[in-house]
Amino acid sequence: MSSFYNGNIKLSIFGQSHSPAIGVVIDGIPAGEKFDEAALKEFVARRSASNNSLGTQRKEPDEIEILAGVANGNFCGAPFAAIIRNTNVKPGDYSEFSHKPRPGHADYTASVKYNGANDFSGGGHISGRLTAPLCIAGGIFKQLLEARGIYIGAHHERIGNITDTRFDPVNITKDTLDNLHRGELTTTDTDSQDKMRALIEAVRADKDSIGGVIECAALGVMPGLGEPMLDGLENRISRLIFAIPGVKGLEFGAGFDAALLRGSENNDPFTYKNGRVVTLTNNHGGILGGISSGMPIIFRTAFKPTPSIFKQQDTVDLLTKENTTLTIKGRHDPCIAVRALPCVEAAAAIALYDALLDNAKNNI
Amino acid sequence: MSSFYNGNIKLSIFGQSHSPAIGVVIDGIPAGEKFDEAALKEFVARRSASNNSLGTQRKEPDEIEILAGVANGNFCGAPFAAIIRNTNVKPGDYSEFSHKPRPGHADYTASVKYNGANDFSGGGHISGRLTAPLCIAGGIFKQLLEARGIYIGAHHERIGNITDTRFDPVNITKDTLDNLHRGELTTTDTDSQDKMRALIEAVRADKDSIGGVIECAALGVMPGLGEPMLDGLENRISRLIFAIPGVKGLEFGAGFDAALLRGSENNDPFTYKNGRVVTLTNNHGGILGGISSGMPIIFRTAFKPTPSIFKQQDTVDLLTKENTTLTIKGRHDPCIAVRALPCVEAAAAIALYDALLDNAKNNI
Amino acid sequence: MSSFYNGNIKLSIFGQSHSPAIGVVIDGIPAGEKFDEAALKEFVARRSASNNSLGTQRKEPDEIEILAGVANGNFCGAPFAAIIRNTNVKPGDYSEFSHKPRPGHADYTASVKYNGANDFSGGGHISGRLTAPLCIAGGIFKQLLEARGIYIGAHHERIGNITDTRFDPVNITKDTLDNLHRGELTTTDTDSQDKMRALIEAVRADKDSIGGVIECAALGVMPGLGEPMLDGLENRISRLIFAIPGVKGLEFGAGFDAALLRGSENNDPFTYKNGRVVTLTNNHGGILGGISSGMPIIFRTAFKPTPSIFKQQDTVDLLTKENTTLTIKGRHDPCIAVRALPCVEAAAAIALYDALLDNAKNNI
Amino acid sequence: MSSFYNGNIKLSIFGQSHSPAIGVVIDGIPAGEKFDEAALKEFVARRSASNNSLGTQRKEPDEIEILAGVANGNFCGAPFAAIIRNTNVKPGDYSEFSHKPRPGHADYTASVKYNGANDFSGGGHISGRLTAPLCIAGGIFKQLLEARGIYIGAHHERIGNITDTRFDPVNITKDTLDNLHRGELTTTDTDSQDKMRALIEAVRADKDSIGGVIECAALGVMPGLGEPMLDGLENRISRLIFAIPGVKGLEFGAGFDAALLRGSENNDPFTYKNGRVVTLTNNHGGILGGISSGMPIIFRTAFKPTPSIFKQQDTVDLLTKENTTLTIKGRHDPCIAVRALPCVEAAAAIALYDALLDNAKNNI
Asked: Which residues are bridge partners to A273 per DSSP?
């Protein structure tokens, strides 16, 4: 349990924030699939702080070293393995947190779980840094999906109270994704991007942090993907999305708003369009009964504000068993949601490719 | 894939709405645990339409027959198996939907997935009826958890635009759960329950349906339960929650509202209270880094309105490949959320007990 | 853990010897595959004592009741579930064994494992009776394999010191399997069958039992089936074979004899025959590196003699903590290997079909 | 599927013979367990060719680099990951085998399976080299077992026709294991070791190879370990044993000889000895019904002779589709069984520790 995903694809994610390396093993990539290493590195670089002035000042080169699973430029059927060395490590920053847990962090819960034997340095295994191997896996499956006409893209739908225009769940196309304004933030509008940036810089200046919502779309997904009950697309996506630190909510299609609607409003009528069955609206977010409908898959992920803020906070001292205060120093993103965007896409890609493999089994 | 859960606990849920029976196999219940069959039956009866005037008029006795796994009133270490016969079956009601898919239902998506070989009758395996075996499993784990001082309870936080008072995430106690107003709906206020009932009856009269939100709490959960990344408590709960038909959203603690907050607002300060570490607020919903903090676990699940409504709807005819209309007859709940309440508790109970077993492994 | 198989196929086997029913749930059968219920029942009947004068006198009708997974004569994509009621139960026979463990049985080991909470009656879950659901699963996959030109057949290669002519691992054909002498024993020679029968009747008359070896072949297996390392064909077959009570050994191809050979003797030279790559000999038993070679798959399974004998035996009394003696009464097969034959075929069928599904995933 | 083990312990083994590195990820080691890195390296070195004049002349330093999972000298609850760089690689040696498959090797079967996309170099992922990560995992669990009084040891019971004295399955003690004659071969007798060495050198001089049998014992295993049916100790051990290249047979206790015995000979009578339940004989090899009896666990593994021999052999040319001959050059062990000994111990250790974790779950 913990960092293994055991579907048609098997993932094993390992590493601690300050261990020699972090990495991932991926089993189940069909042999002979083309591997675009440059595209993978470009994808994973999107979550890197080095490229993002809104991120932490821990600047890690995040060089991906591929150890196994590739031959002659193709995936060779053997498990794929890759690592990233942890080079820019400052272990001294964290010693205090082993007994003075940071509010909003896993310091306390991990300490109890592991009876104090866990690696506190940099959050150990429970660290945003572990989303890099998740992105390696997701980046690979994203390229395998694209080769099948399935495109995944996300935008910052909200940072604090600043909202970007939502995706049109019916009319969104690959062009919509290609034309997103990608920078340190990714939005449909330039205007909202500027305001989000200003907000993040303001909270940073105020030694504070801010939350956000990422909306993700998967286009070109054929109908019939997913399983009923425990391995539906929502089940798979949700299990992977909640692997990203800081996620507190997830909704598909109309999501929580569907709870306010009547069936006559929420039901999406079927109709023929160019010989294909489509729906006129897309409150179902492309998934009915756990199975894709062929309409765009749309979901939104809520991120809490970064728990590491530089204001003084109340906490406890587990050694003295007294209340105390804590002032965090160090290098932290003021908004988790900023760099989490490729992680959301990665989670969706892993889930969808895994579901594709289930359907392939029907071609026995 | 599909109806198997493969954690420390293994679940296998089977059956179709109109097959001879539905049921569940549960492996992993420790031998020697006491089995309270009466309590189980009472729990599962809470989702039965027979007991609920707001539910479908398909009145099923839902008698649980235990086939294996029990000896001398205790779980005996062998897999537990139980079935419920499908007795009140009207297969004729459904023949039309194999080619005229009901909007908002899985008729179309399942038909594509299974190439038309799926069991259309009553929705087949993709049916709310399959939540009965989920409740059998959840009911068992709920009683095993209660024997360890862990209590799970849910209420209808919202039906359409009628809201019930939310649980107080800090001060909620077992008394709160014991004093919920339980009837066909379960609420903290009687007033909101009356209004919800009136709304549901109004939409039913209007041949329509309505959505809702269920809020669930788990109390008495010791800190340190759950795993980082892929098997955190949120990952496990979410995978099981999305197994309940009609769920479109899920949030923990402050959930989507956390996206609006600053870190200084959202972080829950630690403090000592009666010698125990607690937090002064509970925006984290009792889970940090996938691991329980000892605070109440709180989550909310959004249900869409029942897709089966009795108004005429637009759809397609897959045989003639033309647009057409459909008027559903038959017996359907006007609000899925009403009877889904024990299913939400069941999902939480399975996830938490599975996590407890992970921690037990540390006692090797 | 225990009675779940979690590959592409998921199996969940449940029941105790004297519980209301035993059964199996099977997930992963592709929708639309034709189900031949009569052929399944015929296959499972091969392990039934009712049809075998060499078996126990516990005559069970073993009627298979199908609960789910079938629609219109085809597998419908939903999990398949079937049960067999335990009708001919004499619980009184077993009460003594809860504290006076039978030598060679699991009475003692199960009692320790389950802290005495296990179901002792009839051996509980650890009973040859549980091979009936294994045969239900195997019988289904056997018919799905036959539809793809893959045939599985076994014979009693040895009962005690009486040997049957081994399969010719190179020249065996479907005709060989069709022409096996099938009766209560299954052999290539009639002569050896008579001698085996005489031996079994002699040991029965002597209140004793006898061991045996079953040799199994799978023909028509295309090359390229199986995975390296942990999910090779040998790994999968062995995991399922050792699920059959009484198995103490397993060998593929030349097996233990290969340990005596030189590489120049054991290596099977490749050659072209009718445009296909074959090997001139088949010491490898059709599997190289965990992957099928296209040659017949051949393996042998060693069964210990039935532990339940009617001679007086030494054992302990767990209550008084003293040595004592035990004389087993009741109804027991004098040779496990007799009725285990379809179980061996079932194990092979499950493993091979599961491997076929892995290869199907390459057709994504 | 393939190189993942998904029990309580999760293993992920990766690498190809000539990829940058091979390695393993292990999830499920309880946090706080002491890690003896020196003992691990010593254990893994036992399979290294560098230390064995009877092995291949490919001398690899096999330096283990630990990437994650350890903090302050203890396992920290995060997945453990370690790699070994492939340094002494001669890819040119293997190019011919991609179209001229070596008899007895997986060249042909892997080529078909992976449609020619597999990594042929050095056998790719299907290589004895991949047993090094298996030994890393096994070495760790061996030390965790030793801390609980469980000792695992193996000897070369047979090389070709030279036999070593078998373990006494009743009276074997830790002293027996401590006093094994360990050198390049491991035997109970010095005399047999000399003869085995002479035989291996003779077949090497003859450009040939030879098979062997390894017998393994696990001592101090408490009764009650293992699960019935699919996760019994035999099932688990067998699945792991068949992951070692070259294994063609496996037997527990009396094994294939049990097929020759009567129940009255094969049944092991229970008796009290020093207040503990033991058996007077141990034909059951310490396992009854998949569950440990407390007696020594004994099993034997048959290894085929190394398929790479230096004599000319018949094979096919997959490009020209004609028969041809092949003379292998390069560096190969003349007897797989020699260096496989720690791999067998590793497989046993993984299986037993995984079973221990199952029992720990009963301490919930």
From this structure: A276
